[in-house]
Design goal:
Oligomer: single chain
Strand order of the largest sheet: 4-3-2-5-6-7
Bound molecules: inosinic acid
Number of helices: 4
Largest sheet: 6 strands, mixed
Number of strands: 9
Order of helices and strands: EHEHEEEHEEEEH
Length: about 180
């Protein structure tokens, strides 16, 4: 397989670059309406949400601040404990701030539930969630994202920030991987 060509590794394109950008524009407009006259701090969850935060923020014409968190989930997919460890915390105090957590994808939703509760305990005015993608399992999450880009089927996807072994994040679309890629592991 040609290591230089990402496209060769892909099976199906689920979302094109244009579809993603058009949806982000819609959501950005909705956020601007909802937060009119209020401060807004976007909290991106590293590393997957970097593209979403970058494009969502630039689709807005209002002032917006950005901060970042990195978390690691223990026992992902095997336990329902939802234990999460903070690898990088926010640079700033979020007391009395309007926080919008930006996520790439909600799968089980355990990471997000934990993060949302953790941030609420710091005394912000509000904590809401924007997730670009949502898988079917996430429908059982108690704290629902306020903004969802797309509902997708329950399959592993890469691109637009999402990785497989740290690769494919730089793909402009969202796609499923060719089975050959997994079998090469
Ligand atoms: P959750 O706690 O089960 O919702 O897991 C969410 C995290 O799992 C996301 O932030 C991603 O890092 C990762 N993840 C879940 N599904 C996928 C996928 O299809 N492709 C790439 N990463 C995924």
């Amino acid at each position: 397989m040609d290591a230089q060509d990402i496209k060769q590794d892909l099976l199906t394109e689920l979302l094109s670059e244009n579809e993603i950008q058009a949806r982000l524009k819609e959501i950005a407009g909705q956020i601007e309406k909802d937060y009119q006259g209020k401060d807004l701090l976007l909290v991106g969850v590293l590393k997957g949400a970097i593209m979403v935060v970058a494009d969502l923020a630039r689709a807005m014409s209002r002032h917006v601040e950005m901060d970042w968190m990195a978390v690691s989930s223990y026992g992902y997919g095997t336990t329902s404990s939802g234990v999460v460890r903070i690898l990088k915390d926010l640079d700033q105090d979020i007391k009395d701030r309007n926080v919008l957590i930006v996520e790439d994808i909600v799968d089980s939703g355990l990471t997000l539930s934990w993060l949302q509760k953790n941030l609420i305990s710091r005394g912000p005015t509000s904590v809401e969630v924007m997730a670009l993608l949502r898988k079917p399992e996430a429908l059982t999450v108690e704290l629902e994202p306020k903004y969802i880009g797309f509902d997708i089927p329950n399959e592993f996807v890469v691109g637009y920030g999402l990785d497989y072994g740290e690769k494919y994040r730089n793909l402009r679309s969202v796609a499923s991987l060719h089975p050959d890629v997994y079998s090469g592991d």
